[in-house]
Design goal:
single chain, about 350 residues, mainly alpha, Alpha-lytic protease prodomain-like, Alpha-Beta Plaits, 3-stranded mixed β-sheet, 10 helices, 3 strands, about 70% helix
């Protein structure tokens, strides 16, 4: 079948549906009262001690909750999409099905990352195993890029060799249902990740979001195929693939920075300075170093005290500074004292 010009009325219809469905999903960005209630109810029911986010076991419980819920829902969605994709012969739908299946693998990586990070400090890992979360995030991101590349190749091949796609209304409904479920999973993973400041959960959240938009785009493509525009299936397969790859690359950059040792935020450094400089006996501070291992932060600083103070008095001030930092910022700290020199 030759490529026909798209009727103007159909373009208007497609635009209307696309904008309407996108607004349906994105409206939750400003008002997510329903999602918030569901998220909080699930969290408080499954993790009774959910408020103790400073405890590693509680953090791990957050990770297990998001991971296993994601595994169960993604298995169901992946099976539905695979069946529908084979039924109507849609490459973009099969690409999205494998994208969803990759979410299952990445959720297992998240679960494993939290399992390892839950282990206490030992002789070989004196700062704990918190950076296992970053490794889990890296695995999630790398799998995203791999899936994107594979389906980009398949979509390009089908662009030059288009095949008929058999439109089915039930499949369109399945894709809208999938988009809504994946948008909720995005919101839930981000809700949990924000509470415990977990890069792995935030990465998994964006994995869900990319799948939500992919499902939405494919639903629109299915509408167009019933008018004979089968190349749209391949074109949106390419769009979905590029979206997957972009999301993965951005997440790889972020988690790689954390693994290497990302500098602390200016806001955190300013908070440390404000706390320490308001302690009696501290005249100045310098050489602030922050090392992060998952949720755990280790702060090393040099404080300046009056040179006339004896060792006992200087040590007392340093101990009090460590106590304040540990209590206020929930960090482990090491304080070194230097004589203050008024320039």
């Amino acid at each position: 079948m030759g490529l026909l010009l798209v009727p103007q009325e159909f373009l208007y219809l497609t635009e209307y549906l696309t904008v309407g469905l996108l607004n349906f999903l994105l409206c939750f960005q400003e008002e997510k009262a329903m999602f918030k209630k569901i998220n909080q109810k699930i969290l408080s029911t499954i993790v009774p001690t959910w408020e103790d986010v400073g405890e590693q076991k509680v953090r791990a419980a957050y990770g297990y909750l998001e991971g296993w819920l994601s595994v169960v829902l993604n298995v169901v969605l992946a099976i539905l999409k695979t069946i529908c994709g084979l039924w109507i012969n849609s490459i973009s739908l099969l690409a999205d099905a494998f994208h969803t299946f990759s979410d299952v693998l990445t959720s297992f990586a998240v679960i494993l990352g939290f399992k390892i990070s839950e282990k206490p400090q030992d002789a070989e890992h004196p700062f704990g195993h918190g950076r296992a979360e970053y490794i889990a995030s890296f695995i999630v991101s790398a799998l995203l890029v791999f899936v994107g590349i594979e389906f980009l190749k398949q979509s390009i091949e089908k662009l030059f060799n288009p095949e008929p796609v058999d439109y089915k209304t039930i499949v369109f409904i399945v894709m809208l249902f999938s988009a809504l479920i994946k948008e909720w999973l995005f919101d839930f993973a981000r809700f949990l990740g924000t509470k415990i400041k977990s890069q792995a959960l935030l990465a998994d959240a964006w994995h869900h979001r990319s799948d939500a938009f992919a499902s939405l785009l494919i639903g629109i493509a299915l509408l167009m195929t019933q008018f004979g525009y089968y190349t749209v299936d391949a074109v949106l397969g390419i769009v979905v693939s590029l979206l997957i790859m972009y999301t993965g690359i951005e997440l790889i950059k972020e988690c790689s920075s954390e693994i290497i040792g990302k500098a602390p935020s200016p806001e955190f450094v300013a908070e440390v300075k404000d706390l320490v400089l308001n302690i009696d006996g501290v005249k100045n501070i310098h050489d602030i170093q922050v090392h992060q291992y998952g949720h755990n932060k280790y702060v090393n600083i040099h404080i300046e005290v009056e040179p006339e103070l004896n060792v006992r008095e200087s040590h007392h001030i340093a101990d009090f500074v460590e106590e304040v930092l540990n209590r206020q910022l929930k960090v482990s700290s090491l304080v070194h004292t230097d004589p203050y020199v008024d320039n």
